[in-house]
Specification:
The structure is a homodimer. The first copy, chain A, is mostly helical. Chain A has helices at about 5-50, 60-80, 90-95, 95-115, 120-130, 135-140. The N and C termini of chain A lie far apart (about 50 Å). The interface of A and B includes residues 40, 60, 66 and 71 of A.
Chain lengths: ~150, ~150
């Protein structure tokens, strides 16, 4: 092998390595983005649960409900790229019509929750939290990792 | 010890155990509540970083900035109870005037960020993200656990 061919071969290898590293990073980015969103939802749902159990101050009940509702509006887009990984089951994309419908229902339920929370009626809020039906979707579409 | 005294003694012990378990749970609740808030901020800041690096879609840039800004308004209240633990250093309460002032500055900077994000000018948004100055406060007041 000439010195030039060796160099070209090395460059080609470097390009392949770079390209595959980039492709991997892209998929990981998709996963990371939706994880950031789902974790935000989990943190805020956790807060609502604490408030309803009198374990956290209720002063910001409406604000936390609004954060949850606003975050909910960003979730579906984050799942649009068909990238299995993280805790998303392949069923998300195999049953996209159903998943998408459930996501829309979740957004609507979170919006109802935020409106109810503005009234400060915690009993009504507790009912609206149940209607978010997190578990319903997680059972079908989430593979919870430890 | 009579049987009655034994029973009373056992009851008293049970009451002490219950009371201290409750007190402990209360402190843990305080810690859990502020952790939920700080984690929400971290998730949304992570998203903003991804968007600015073109690793996540920019469609919801303004929404994510708004979630961060709204969450920021809930943070100071969560630190009001003087309960060391989680990742909060005792300095939070030893230097409350400074901590409080920085929290107010953070809320104002996050609000500026949210307003800027509505323009879609990502370069301007990047500047506003720096002004959040997360690290400034974390260096003084956060003991990061692994």
């Amino acid at each position: 092998m000439t010195r030039l061919r060796k160099l070209m071969s090395g460059l080609a290898l470097a390009m392949v390595v770079t390209a595959s590293a980039t492709a991997h990073a892209d998929d990981q980015d998709v996963i990371d983005y939706r994880k950031h969103i789902m974790k935000t939802l989990a943190e805020q749902a956790g807060i609502l649960g604490m408030i309803l159990q009198n374990k956290a101050p209720a002063d910001n009940l409406a604000t936390h409900a609004q954060i949850l509702a606003t975050t909910a509006t960003t979730a579906k887009k984050a799942f649009e790229p068909n990238v299995v990984g993280g805790e998303a089951k392949p069923a998300v994309w195999a049953n996209w019509a159903d998943f998408s419908k459930r996501m829309d229902a979740f957004v609507a339920a979170a919006d109802e929750l935020a409106k109810t929370a503005k009234t400060g009626d915690t009993a009504a809020v507790a009912g609206k939290v149940k209607e978010l039906n997190c578990r319903g979707c997680h059972t079908e579409y989430r593979e919870q990792k430890k």
